[in-house]
Design goal:
The strands form three sheets. Strands 5, 6, 9, 10, 11, 13 and 14 form a seven-stranded mixed beta sheet that branches. The chain has a five-stranded mixed beta sheet with strand order 4-3-12-7-8. Strands 1-2 form a two-stranded antiparallel ribbon. Helices cover 21% and strands 22% of the residues. By secondary structure, it is α+β, with helices and mostly antiparallel strands. Helix 1 runs antiparallel to helix 2. It has nine helices and 14 strands. A hairpin with a 3-residue loop joins strand 1 (2-5) and strand 2.
């Protein structure tokens, strides 16, 4: 059955007798027809965009399903090929479970994600503690296919599941004096063996300026590939800020604090000359020890293959560039 929607084009409606698989196959067939020319060149472009926007990235079939809806943001789904689930869950930075890329997948099974809650603190009218289940119900979840760029020079494309962080911020009503938002990661040495190391000052803390936190692309994230987050990817709730280097997206969040002063963040405190507070993806500003002009796409680009060029703000310049108008991006790196 088809209906016409004023903004989303044609959508499939499944009755209780039609399985998700049938819906998927019908949508796929419709998009194939459009892309082969029956609806013309313009409709072919629409078909490709709609295919990603409607979540045709297959579920991994590993964890509990979240069943997100299509994104309501036109720019929220890149047209690039998603990284495989295997690569995205086996190649990670999560120092609470070790410093090697394979350590999180090997060690994060010790993380206890239930029960889980997030405390809202600081300069808000409605502080308090939110149970994970209540956060998940606060706003409809969407699939957002974002580019992920690590400060180390590699990248992925991940279909995340969540909703704009702004939805939660509006509910807790920040005071006018709140200029920044701080995110605190769980730091439990009993379940996170890396917390005993001296690599960083624990707990892991990240932060955003208020306008960055309120930007619709900033995602409060509960899943990926249509399912709940694997432990090594920041379960059960994390942040995703697609125009910044990956370490800005705090994982396994237990506190969100609203502050007047810029928070001290983990990597900025560890090496301020290498990791600035903003850490926007910027191919013109190199890391002190390597170039940021190019990147290696995990699962696609081999170690000796020609690297792809890095995009300003990771390809989201049109959406977020105005946040930094007039700023010296070499000084505020």
């Amino acid at each position: 059955m088809l209906i016409k929607n004023r903004t989303d084009g044609f959508q499939h409606l499944a009755t209780s007798e039609i399985t998700d698989r049938v819906v998927y196959e019908r949508r796929r067939d419709l998009l194939k027809m459009m892309a082969t020319g029956m609806a013309g060149t313009a409709m072919a472009g629409w078909a490709s965009r709609q295919a990603l926007a409607e979540g045709v990235v297959p579920r991994a079939g590993k964890l509990a399903a979240l069943n997100p809806r299509a994104s309501t943001l036109a720019v929220a789904s890149t047209m690039e090929k998603p990284t495989s689930y295997k690569d995205a869950t086996a190649y990670n930075n999560f120092y609470e479970f070790g410093t090697d890329k394979s350590d999180p997948a090997a060690n994060a099974h010790t993380l206890k994600t239930t029960p889980w809650s997030v405390e809202i603190e600081g300069l808000v009218k409605k502080p308090g503690k939110w149970a994970l289940e209540d956060l998940q119900k606060l706003s409809p979840m969407e699939e957002r296919i974002y580019r992920l760029r690590c400060v180390e020079g590699w990248s992925m494309v991940i279909p995340w599941v969540g909703y704009s962080l702004a939805e939660l911020i509006k509910r807790v009503e920040p005071l006018g004096s709140a200029k920044y938002v701080e995110f605190v990661t769980q730091a439990d040495p009993k379940t996170m063996p890396g917390v005993g190391s001296r690599v960083l000052d624990w707990p892991y803390v990240e932060g955003l300026r208020m306008d960055e936190a309120l930007h619709p692309l900033t995602l409060l994230t509960f899943g990926m590939y249509g399912e709940v987050l694997p432990n090594q990817n920041g379960a059960p709730v994390r942040l995703v800020v697609p125009w910044k280097y990956g370490f800005k997206s705090g994982k396994s969040i237990v506190k969100i604090r609203f502050t007047e002063k810029q928070p001290g963040t983990a990597w900025n405190k560890a090496a301020a000359n290498e990791y600035g507070f903003y850490s926007n993806v910027n191919p013109t500003v190199d890391h002190p020890r390597w170039s940021q002009a190019s990147e290696r796409r995990i699962g696609e680009d081999g170690l000796f293959a020609k690297k792809r060029k890095t995009l300003m703000f990771n390809g989201y310049e049109a959406q977020v560039g105005q946040l930094y108008a007039g700023m010296d991006l070499k000084k505020f790196y």
